[in-house]
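pinned: reference chain
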Amino acid sequence: MSAILSPMIRWAARISGLLVALAFGLLFLGEFFQPHSGPPPGVKEWTGILLLAACCAGMLLAWRHELAGALLSLIALNALAFIVPFWQYTVLFVISIPSFLYLADWILEHNAQQTGRHA
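pinned: its structure tokens
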């Protein structure tokens, strides 16, 4: 079962993480080249941008190192939730889905390796 489920979870994480990173990159570049409201006014907003960039970097890092990338991404999103107030946290939940998928993939792979050693 794990032999079928693990690649499906891995590729779902990779594709969704890539989509999140690309969406953030497009939004960032769009606001950078054609700003609608000017630059971010304060430290809190710049911190939010940097934390979202760290989240996306974690998702891309997770292609090679699932646990480290997933943890970086989730820690950055948690810090973002505490620093920047949101009206609804639905967006953060959707952005965190690839990280949870990477974490699930790492757990499945880690358990499969542990089972293989004991058998």
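why pinned: The chain has one domain: 2-118. The radius of gyration is 17 Å.
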